[in-house]
Amino acid sequence: MFESLIGLVAIIALFVIISRQQRRIGLIERELGALRSLVLSGAVPPAAKPADQATTEGKPADAAPAAAADIASPPANAPETPAAETDASSGEVVSGPWTSGEAAPKAAEPARPDAAAAKAARQTDVETALGTRWAVWVGGIALALGGLFLIRYTIEAGIFGPGVRLAMAAMLGLVLVAAGEFIRRTGFRVPVQGATGAYIPAILTAAGAFILFGTVYAAHGIYGFIGPALAFTLLGAIGVATIAAALVHGQALAGIGLLGAMVTPALVASQAPNPWALFGYLSIVLAATGIIARMRDWRLLMAAAFVGTGLWTIFYMTDAPGANLSTILFIDAVTLAVLAFVWLGRRGGEAEPASGFDWPSIAPGFFVGLSAMALFIDPEYAAAGDALWGAALIAALVVVALYRPLALALLHAAGLATVLVYLGIIPPTSIVSDFSGGALGVEGLAAAVADTLMLRVGIFLGLVFIGAGFWAARNLAASAQIRAASWAAWGVAAPLVILLTLWVTFGNLDRDLAYAAVAALLVVVFAAGGEWIARGEEPPLQGGAAVSFALGGAAASALLMLYMAFGSGWTTILLGAAAIVPALATRWRAYPVLGWISVGAVIAVLGRVAFDPTIVGAEFLSTTPVFNWLLPGYGVPALAFGFAAWQLARTTPALPMAGNGRPRLALEAGAALFALLTVAMLVRHAMHGGVIDTGAATLTEQAIYTLIAIGAGAILVAIDMRSPSPVLRYGSLAAGVVSAAFVVVQHFLALNPLFTDESTGEIPVFNLLFLAYLLPAVAAGGLALYARDKRPKWYAAMLALVAALLAFAYATLSVRRLFKGEFIGLWSGLGQLETYTYSALWLIIGVALLTAGVWLKSQVLRIASAALISVAVLKVFLFDMSELEGVLRALSFIGLGAVLIGIGLFYQRLLTRAAREKLQTSS
Fold first, then answer.
1. Which of 506, 687, 895, 905 has the fewest CB atoms below 10 angstroms from its CB?
2. How remote is the C-alpha of 612 from its chain's centroid?
């Protein structure tokens, strides 16, 4: 086990070092490329200033003489080595081992970019990598492993006793650390130029620290020479000292020290573990790491420290029996304190950045938020009333995020924790369904927390999010819009989720005036807060993202209030009427979100009627025609949406961010849709005796729907001509297409009395055929004529063709009814006189269509006439010749011939007249 642990740690250390050095190599190669370009272009780079040689992230601290002097001054008699030596004979710069290229050559001849020079540069890079970087890395790892293998050999050979072996290993580790410090202090500050990743003092120090870790662990875990307390103290001290040494040796060494410090509690076992000792030690490591990471701006190191501490906290909460709440709160408090006062602490009075995001703060936000959720959800913590402390942790996250704006991740963590906790209190439900022969189940798990406690905690957290969210959004609205939007979003989202879940879990779902009053209060608070934030914008009252979230929250609160306070019927009506309020508000405020809130009302009402088309429930819907809940349930929203669209048409064109009037168009579409739904639902209600959700549609009902669709198309065309709108234009086209589809699918096929044998009525003229065929034919023809110059040609042609087909169907079915009576199903057969009458009728209709086409100058009608006459010709020659007998057969052919000759004469006169008019015009 000992060898496996050594190998694992060695592999991790090697991975960390190599990854870090590869990044340094990439940086050096880019810098060399830039310098080579300057040399080839003949430009002389300016000399670097001493201030520019300060240590940056990823470089050893001794890379700059100024930084080294602050930490450890070299001996007074240390020789001063020039930064660069110039060979006068060649004009090239010879780099020394104590420089990083501070000085630039005074004169350099531009080298020719030929193939030989490029090949020499590549050879130099390979030589530098193999001779400096890789040699030093492998050498350091070899030293560390060699020391441990030496200890193993002495164990196996029995040369020395355990105490001597451990002492020798400790001496080797100390010697390596001392050697690294000696080399650093004697002037070897930065390695050979091009080999900055091979910093020998850091490699030696890391190898020494690695050996010391292994020595102390062997003394405790293998031989038992020292107790757990001493071993814990020594390992922790080595880890912290290694992290501190990173100030002069680089971030890679700090990573090794942090890894050892975080693994130490797992290496040292105890029969009676003390959580205070564990978390006290972790707090010291975290604070020390935070200080060093802040001094060098090492983000990766800080994030790793937060992750290690968070993992230990979660491990303790999940696996330790009877976990001590005080220690959990202590380590969470220390984590937030290190983040707020150490890592994100200001330097020298510098101001907080106006923008930016600190990604290492994601780790403390995640783990502290997870701890808070555990105090709510875990039965043991919940039974002890620890949910209050969970709420305190969430509030602490919000406070730290408010104090340090860069730590915005803490706000998101607090909001997510709150939402998940309160969604978890909803009573559990199970959803089971068959899926490929198996059962698919989803089960919910509620939090084991008392009702009154969750109510009090919910009020507290709601106030925290509202207060902090709106205050921060107001202060950041002018300088950091994304941060302001985030604060405003959580300021409305968390309270709304809390209110919704408490109402669903503990309230009365039918009607609860207490929760409705709270929702009404939130409407006022969110609306006032949005106005307050808007006044803090620059320029004020622009209605940015933060204002949009606040006003959107007010709209969502109003929606909840209506559901909580009113029944289903009044909820639908008031939801539709609510679209007027934000539309009217555009008279005083040019906030782009106001129009979209009205659109949200359309979506809410659509969802409501899709869930329950009867508005009040089928059992409560009156059977009285027209004057029932359907009229206001569909009619009031239609009127409200129309008024809101009219209002936005007057105000939104002046808004620079109104989305090109898209909210107005959506409201116009909603108004048209609900107007059609109003009429259609009232018709269905009347046709089915007050029941609208059962029963198949009849031809009578479908005829009414078709007339409604055609009438809606005409109304939309008329309105569009007075107030042009894309919604009205495309809506009228859609209405015409839908009506044509109704005719083809329902009137001619599915509900045709020829196929269904439905009763056509006893009245000779005003019967089902009149309602289902003649009236739609007149309506479609009238709409085609009205839209002839107002809509595309295909639209008018389609409607004209539909009108002609409906008229043809009406005439044909009327003949059928004349011979068969009320029921005209095909299975009753055809008589000879009836067959002849169809031929004569079709020829008459064909001639009428031809006359109308010439008079109206409609090519569609003339083509329809030709098609109908062609059908009549085929019928006479193919059907009448075989089915008719005697005088009827003769009359059929005589009539056909007379009509065809008359049509020929008509076209000859028409063409002769056209030719004469053309000749007169040309002369």
1. 905
2. 30
Structure token digits, residue 166:
């451990």
Task: Find out whether 284 and 240 touch, Cβ atoms under 8 Å.
Answer: yes
Tokens 């957290």 found at: 461
Concatenated DSSP letters for 853-877? HHHHT-HHHHHHHHHHHHHHHHIII
Q: At what angle do helices 568-577 and 630-651 cross, to 10 degrees?
A: 20
CA 3 to chain centre: 48
Enclosing H/E stretch for 432: strand 430-435
C-alpha 409 chain-centroid distance: 17
Q: How far is CA 67 from the centre of its chain?
A: 46
* HSE-CB for 267 with a 13 A CA cutoff: 29
Number of neighbouring beta carbons within 10 Å of residue 807: 21
| Rounded average pLDDT over 395-422 | 93
**Integer Cα distance of 59 and 46 in angstroms:** 22
pLDDT confidence of residue 463:
95
For residue 668 the two structure tokens come to 């116009």
Quick one: tokens of 151? 């200890």
Q: Tell me the average pLDDT of the chain.
A: 75
What is residue 862's predicted lDDT score, i.e. its pLDDT? 77
Which of 139-153, 438-452, 650-664, 806-820 has the largest mean confidence?
A: 806-820
Long-range contacts of 148-153 (CB under 8 A, 24+ apart): 148/6, 148/211, 148/214, 151/214, 151/215, 151/218, 152/3
The pLDDT > 90 percentage for the chain reads: 23
Question: Ramachandran region of residue 224, left (φ > 0), alpha (ψ -120 to 50) or beta?
Answer: left
Per the structure block, which two tokens stand in for 96? 């020394």
Burial state string for 255-290 with b = 16 or more CB within 10 A and e = fewer than 16: bbbbbbbbbbbebbeeeeeebebbbebbbbbbbbbb
Q: pLDDT by residue (tens digit) across 299-325?
A: 888 899 899 999 988 888 887 556 788
CA distance 66 to 89: 33
Token pair, residue 554, equals 């007010």
Residue 232: which pLDDT band, with cuts at 50, 70 and 90?
Answer: low
Find the helix or strand (DSSP H, E) in which 93 lies.
Answer: strand 93-95
CA distance 830 to 812: 13
Which secondary structure element, helix H or strand E, spans residue 15, and what is its range? helix 2-41
pLDDT at 694 over 60: yes
Residues 6+ apart with CB under 8 A from 156: none
What is the 3-state composition of the chain as percent helix, strand, coil, each rounded to the nearest 5?
A: 75, 0, 25
Q: Return the minimum-mean-pLDDT range out of 263-277, 472-486, 524-538, 597-611.
A: 263-277
Structure tokens at 422: 């309160």
Question: Which residue did the predictor score with more confidence, 333 or 241?
Answer: 333
More confident residue, 852 or 468: 468
Bridge partners of 421? Answer: none
